[in-house]
Amino acid sequence: MVEKNENFSREIQEKYLQVEYLNKELEQISIQLEMMNSKLAESLLVRNSIENIKKTQSFSQLAMDIFVPSEITDDNTFLVNIGWKIFVKMKKEEIKRYLENKIDNFKSVISHISKRKSELQNEIQKQIFELQSLQSN
Questions:
Q1: What's the farthest any 2 CA atoms get from each other in the chain?
Q2: Spelled out in words, what is the top-level CATH class assigned to the domain 2-136?
């Protein structure tokens, strides 16, 4: 009888650990999803802003509260950081295609992460139900 109680207690502890592990993974995935959604929103904003770039004089932010005079003399050429601190000059049409690819990639990753998040949520619910069933016995 004691051995049966020990096995039962061990099984409940294992279920608790499984639920805890799944919750931590869910938390990490939720953070990733939030980050990807933020990057997607930023990319959409930049894509929509590209058309509004015009030759003009203005001020550019140098630091938190410091601005310097600046002038856009060419509203068709952009310098783009494509990763690893590699910068490439792109024309307006090139940058639009570049941003569309980024947006498509973000949407794909978001879809994949959302699917995994849903799977985790379902698995957590299943584990909790099993745990509750064990505890009620």
A1: 85
A2: mainly alpha
Total-model pTM: 0.77
Residue with tokens 């998040």: 117
How far is the C-alpha of 4 from the C-alpha of 35, rounded, in Å? 47
- Of the candidates 73, 40, 46, 44, the residue with the CA atom closest to the CA atom of residue 58: 73
**How many residues in the chain?**
137
Q: How far apart are the first and last CA of the chain?
A: 15
How confident is the model over 42-74, as pLDDT tens digits? 999 999 999 888 888 888 888 889 999 999 899
CA 60 to chain centre: 28
